[in-house]
Structures are given as structure tokens and as C-alpha cells.
Design brief:
With 273 residues, this protein is an alpha/beta fold. The protein has eleven helices and 14 strands.
Length: 273
């Protein structure tokens, strides 16, 4: 009996020891402290999507402005650091975040499951439905999803719109281009039949191009696929939590809605396209 208890005691010690030594060591999350210590919040965007992010000439100087940019400014101010904005093509943003080149990205990102595997996201700060833009001389023939069968539909390469087009309008002829203005140019020139864009973007382009309209096609997409969120490097828990607190405070004060309205007006006044 004593031998039995001895073996049980030894086995218990081994289990405890193995649990101690096998437990993985988690890397320290210094994402927030790193930003605070550097004094700079590095944000990457694709500034070709007014009124969310776009270029504007002020006093002979090119500036990146917009709805997302104003939110980024507010976050930087709340953290007490300087904001540094970098512009690049949309398809390069997630790889650059994965490589740790930037602290966060704002460019109308939806937190898809595929993206969640490689980057982190804030809570959604804006819900943006998608619509189909078409020329007015084509709109009458576009009345249902099936009417898009075989039609050429433009999207921005790597965007949520491209995923939605693949999933919900699989029989169209997808034309994926690097920048959104390229998609709109093709639509205006008649080389594509329609373009899938965010509702906010559509309002801006219809203001600047009166020959464009929203086609009467209802593409039913769940709300969780239209929410916009900020992108961070994976495991940036401290920075994500802090930014979520800032976004929640902005929502509660109505500041996000105010910034949206401000930048819709700004983009129209500037004639952005």
C-alpha cells in the first residue's frame, strides 16, 4: 500500500511539473506602450475612396483627408501622439500590417474570417451597405441579380466588395482593378456595365458624375459583412482595447456621425472623384 501511495505521489509531482514546463510562454504585448513611447501612431490607408479617405490640395499642398482620417486623428490626439499617414494600394495594406510596418490601417475594412486569421480588428465603427453603380442608359436593364449574368462588374481588387461579388453575384464577369477611381473611369467610359461600391462612395460619385445612378438591384448581404473596422497587427490586444474605448466614446458623443457628415460635404465641395 505504501508503494502505491508513493507512486501516486510521484505521478502527481510529474503532472504538476509537466504542466509547469509545457505551458507556453506568451510574448509580451507592448503594442500600446510602443506607440506611446515612440510618440507616433503609424496609420496606412488607400486614399482613393472619397469621402472616407482621399487627397486634397490645400494652399498648394497635397493632404490626405477624409472620414477615416479624421477618426485616426482623434485616436492619435486621445493617445497624445502624432499621426503619421501613409498611402498605398489597397491590396498591399494587410500584408504591410502583418509585417508590422504600421500600427493600424483604416480603409473601409470589413473583418472577414479570412482576414481575422492574419490580423486583428477593432469593433465596427460604421456600417456601410453596398450598391451597384451604373450609367443611366444601362440602369433600366439591371433589375435583379440574375440580370447581371454575363455582365461586366467592376470592383476594387482585394476589397470586401470583391468577396461579395464572388459570393452573391457569381455569374457576372468580374473586373477587379487596383484603385477605385480606375473602376469608376471604366464605368464612365462604358467598358464595364456596373460597379459594386459602398453606399457612401456611390453618393459622392453620383454627385460628381450626374450620368451615374444606383441600379435597382437589392443584393442582400448580412450586416456583419458590411461593418467597417480598424485593422491592427495580430496580438495587438492592448492597442486594440484602447482604440475600442476611444471609438465607444466617440459613438456615445455622436462624433462619428458628425465626422461622416463633415467629410461628405468636404468631398463634394472639393469635387473629388
Amino acid at each position: 500500500m505504501r508503494k502505491l501511495f508513493a507512486w501516486i505521489a510521484i505521478a502527481s509531482v510529474l503532472v504538476v511539473c509537466s504542466s509547469v514546463f509545457v505551458r507556453p510562454v506568451l510574448a509580451k504585448d507592448d503594442s500600446l506602450q510602443r506607440v506611446l513611447k515612440s510618440g507616433v501612431l503609424r496609420v496606412v490607408t488607400a486614399a482613393d475612396n472619397p469621402p472616407k479617405e482621399f487627397h486634397l490640395m490645400r494652399d498648394g499642398k497635397d493632404e490626405i483627408v477624409g472620414f477615416d482620417i479624421d477618426i485616426a486623428k482623434h485616436i492619435a490626439e486621445s493617445l497624445g501622439v502624432r499621426l503619421e499617414i501613409t498611402d498605398m494600394q489597397f491590396k498591399g495594406i494587410v500584408p504591410s500590417i502583418r509585417n508590422g510596418e504600421f500600427d493600424m490601417a483604416m480603409a473601409g475594412f470589413n473583418p472577414t474570417e479570412e482576414r481575422k486569421r492574419v490580423v486583428a480588428f477593432s469593433h465596427s465603427y460604421h456600417v456601410l451597405p453596398f450598391v451597384l453603380l451604373a450609367r443611366k442608359d444601362m440602369a433600366d436593364s439591371l433589375t435583379s441579380v440574375s440580370s447581371l449574368d454575363g455582365k461586366s462588374v467592376g470592383v476594387q481588387m482585394g476589397s470586401t466588395q470583391e468577396k461579395i461579388l464572388d459570393e452573391y453575384v457569381p455569374r457576372c464577369r468580374k473586373i477587379a482593378l487596383g484603385k477605385l477611381p480606375e473602376v469608376i473611369m471604366e464605368l464612365n467610359e462604358g467598358t464595364i456595365d456596373a460597379a459594386l461600391v459602398g453606399w457612401l462612395t456611390a453618393q459622392n460619385y453620383m454627385h460628381n458624375y450626374p450620368e451615374l445612378t444606383v441600379a435597382d438591384i437589392d443584393i442582400v448581404v448580412p450586416e456583419d459583412k458590411t461593418g467597417q473596422a480598424i485593422v491592427f497587427p495580430k496580438d495587438s490586444h492592448a492597442l486594440v482595447d484602447k482604440v475600442n474605448d476611444i471609438l465607444a466614446d466617440m459613438k456615445a458623443k455622436g462624433e462619428i456621425t458628425q465626422l461622416l457628415e463633415k467629410n461628405i460635404a468636404l468631398a463634394r465641395e472639393a469635387g473629388q472623384n
